[in-house]
# Entry
Amino acid sequence: MRALKTVAVALGITLGAILVIPLIVLAGLFVWLKLTEEDDEEALELDEDV
# Structure
């Protein structure tokens, strides 16, 4: 019974990691995109002046 509980906990942790890790990666990409978006707009404004 204890082994079954251990396997269930390990499975739960694994499934949690499978869901959480991609969400963290996507959140990081979203933040990076938002931070670099302003730089892209400034670069476009500089190109228009030339």
The mean pLDDT is 86. The CA atoms of residues 20 and 38 lie 28 Å apart. Residues 20-50 form one domain. DSSP finds one helix and no strands in the chain.
